[in-house]
Amino acid sequence: MNRRYRIGVIGAGSRATAFTPQLHTRMTRAELYGVCDIDGDRLDRYVKEQHLEGIRASTDVEAFLNEKELDAVVVTAADFAHCDITVKALKAGKPVYMEKPIAHTLDDAYTMLECQRQTGGLVYMGFNLRASPTYIKLRQLIRGGVLGQVLHITGVEQLHVAHIASFMRRFHRHSHLNGGLLNAKCSHDMDLLQWLIGHEHRVVKISSFGGCDIFKPARQPATHCRLCPSATYNACPYKAPNADDLRAGRATLPRENNPDLYPGDLCVYTHDKDLVDNQTLILEWDHGVRGNFNLQAFQHMGNRTNRIWGEKGVLDFDTLREPNITFTHSATGDVENLHFQPRVGGHGGVDGLMLDRFLDAIESHDVGDAGMKEGLAATLLAIKADESRLTGKTVEIPMEMYEQRPQSV
Description:
Blueprint (H helix, E strand, L loop, with lengths): L4 E6 L9 H7 L3 E7 L3 H10 L6 E3 L2 H5 L6 E4 L6 H10 L4 E3 L7 H14 L3 E3 L7 H12 L5 E11 H9 L5 H4 L2 H17 L5 E9 L18 H6 L7 H6 L29 E8 L4 E10 L3 E8 L2 E6 L6 E5 L5 E4 L7 H4 L1 H14 L7 H20 L3 E2 L13
């Protein structure tokens, strides 16, 4: 088709920067229709910083969604706003590209799924790691049978220090606004574990352990970086990005209509958060495959690793290591090395590719295995893992929870 789609972006935050430049100047199949954010100050600043003067800018989500010239939307708003925006978009007949996670609660996720069924609308989940050439090859190897019977899968995500610090000072520090760190940050990983094994099978048991062991309130020297004693501040690896300028009087905090959500240079040791800074999961699928996942921070560089054991061998993947994938044969010990040329750009160079996949889904009206049920499955694991962590019990996940709201919810 030769149609050029007019795409709106809802949510003028950092994640929006992955999409507005692509749509504004780099795509032939689509163009940037406009940007919407309920915070007018934040929206104005975003438009100026991204050099989008002259494009449509709106603070009224419902009116924006009901504009006839708008063909589809990319939702990059805060996690807790996903449900409201998606329901309004589906009722307005607009296809949705949804950034992870699908929602911050299971109740919202089921509400969105029910609305999609009622409207017949399209929601494409932005699980962009699935577009990585290495993850695509890893899945092909697993599902192609090189391992024989798959027995165990493990995943590790390590966050570098600035990344984990950002979660501890923004609204993400409140689990009631993002569903917890596993949901907000590791939805990709919760999806990848299930995508690699195959969504025809489901995780039916989960146990989890974790806590906040570093960012404890007892360590807080001051409420904000600009107020921190000099010696403590100079030694702190978790400074807010603009803290030096704030302390020197060279800058002021951007004006926000809701400073509780974006508190600027808030200290990472704040007393009002309930987020973990490390967590471990143990999982069991309905066909006997078992696995585990480990979330750790405080690393110099961010990294993801996976290892999958089978009867015939072991597959290893590490984003920082060359070669990217190794396969060790069980019978002989022989090792095969698979190298991949990295893509250039955001999220491993796949953000633009994901927009093309979204357009393909609109044209075919088929999201494949990247729809709301898969989004629900990722958030379901994250939420149930935290239920296990908080109760100290292994949690069973009924199969029907992957399809619809259970009667008890």
